[in-house]
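Usage

Read records sequentially. Each one opens with the input sequence:
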Amino acid sequence: MTAVNTPLSACDDTMIERSLVRALRSSGVPMLALDANMRPVWVNEAFTREFGMTLDVLASHRGSLLQHPATRMTDPPAAFAAISEQRENSQVIQIRRADHTWTPVLAWATPVLDGEQLSLWLVRLDTLASASVDLVRNLVGQERRDLQVLADVAQVSTNISSAGDLDATARVLVGSVVRHACFLVDLDSPHTDGGDPDDPALQVLTGGGDGMADLDLSADWPPGSLAHLVATRLRDRAYPEAQPDAPQIFTLLAVPGRHSVVGLLAVVPLSGAGMAELDRATLGLLRVSARRVGTTLESSTLYLRAHRLAETMQRSMLPQQAEIDGLDVWTYYAPNIVDTQIGGDWYDILPVRPGTAGIVIGDVVGHDVEAAATMGQLRAVVRAYTLEGSAPEQVLARLDQIVAGMQVSRAAGIVCSTLTAADDGWQLDYCRAGHLPPLLRRDQSVTYLNEGRGPMIGFGQNASRAGATVGLQPGDVLVYYTDGLVEHRGRNMRDGLDVLARVVRDATGPDAARIGEEMLSRLARHAEDDIAVVVVRVPAESADVPVSHRRRSALPHDPSALRIARQAVRGACDDWDLPSTKSAELVVSELVANAVNHGWGEVTLQLTDVDDALRIEVTDGNPAPPVATDGHPDRIGGFGIKIVEQLADWGWRQTGSGGKVVWAKMRALGDDETY
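and closes with the structure output:
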């Protein structure tokens, strides 16, 4: 029988197509076809023989072949780019056979166009020996890239101290997902506590499924839902980089901490159709990175909460009003908390009776909650006995007995003293229990008051306490302090005391506050411990007495400082019978907000009655001057200094420690003026 050869020109298109389909089916080269979204729609017999998988098995995974559990790609970014541009691409991939062994092949992906529209991808798989060498080379390169990404994420995550640092981590994660934008969403919001149970973002957050979901960015999610929150943030910050024709589908992954989910990682495609899905290798890398970031963020959040709690506890134990009628008094306290620890330093100013006041300063051994608790107990006992009118040595002796009965495990150093007005000045009675001696400046000489010393509280149950007395003359300056002011690494205590003596001797400030500021600028720039200081100046004449018209306090470096500052202003205006309470509250709010938002270091507030008007001074560590603006472009705010200008005379000066003081003196307002 003779074969009949029909000329090609005589064949119609249908015959050619049928012949090509039969050729593809019977070819000995494994082939498969994918739709426009890279999902398998056809395989030939050679593919089934070679890998033991039928089309039904291969297509049981509804996602893209790029993300199929039976495939491993060596260069996903190159494949993504080729798919986006609808051009041919070849690379070594691994395919898992039915017996679970992996086989390296060289895959040729060719786009099949129907006019200008992409209809199919035809993939030819060549099982070449050389493919093994290429596979090893590519896998090694990919492993190196993955390890570098993980190292970068680890480095960045160590610097996460708050949710505000998530953007830096997101920028590192972008390097691991080429052609995708990563956006980390912090979930410290009320959206995490409820909402629609069908909300896919909430299901990811609560651990539903595998902690991952694909969301449509353009969907009309209900306002208030977590999906709406995430989609809104993505539209505002991440998605504008996408091409106009890109599918608005993004992948959402949970960011787990040790105990709970702390955030969501949204991965947004930046190019054409079919790019929303992630390949398995990239997805695994993102999961590992997200877990590392989540664990660090959770730890940082817990640390910040403990830090704020510790500082709040510490400050709550300090007096809010530090004044003695007839004396110029300045106080200072600054915690130097490098972790969640809290210290045991404290001071107290006690009005015992008219003409007599008690001054106490102390330091409990240790920096932990037990030290703070011990400090609170000791402070309460000392206050009670001092207010009874007991002499300082009697107060400390009774404290020894009580500490022995309470079985307090921490020792403490204390200086307990009383100041009593006399005809020619003031009389100081004091007793020391293992604490550094107060310093007395008279004229141009300084003396440490070393008398009245005894063992620390906790070791003095069998010891007798002896007091000492010193007469104070007009112009004298008395300084109480804790060891954080004089003790530093690389300098012993004796040298530190010598430096303090020189600084106090050479201080030129006209009042206790200026003397104290000079001390801090010289001695407390790089403090390594908590610092508590009390400076008492005996005025040279009665007109030189500020008489309860100056208050100074340290503020926390967070938004709670505004509330504390407003309370201090209200109290000062009420006690000093000053007008303009509401306008002063507004001014202090603006000055403190600027210090908290734009400054650094310790933020302090000083209030002074100057000619029956309130003077407000706010100090921070940023030397840059405040600037009056007409508001932030396209944002709310920026009018702070303008508001201050309308209500007060104001100015600023640099401090000796490299920061600045911004001051405002309130103007008198008429009775018909409103705020």
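Summary fields computed downstream for this record:
- The chain has a mean pLDDT of 76.
- The first strand starts at residue 31 and ends at 34.
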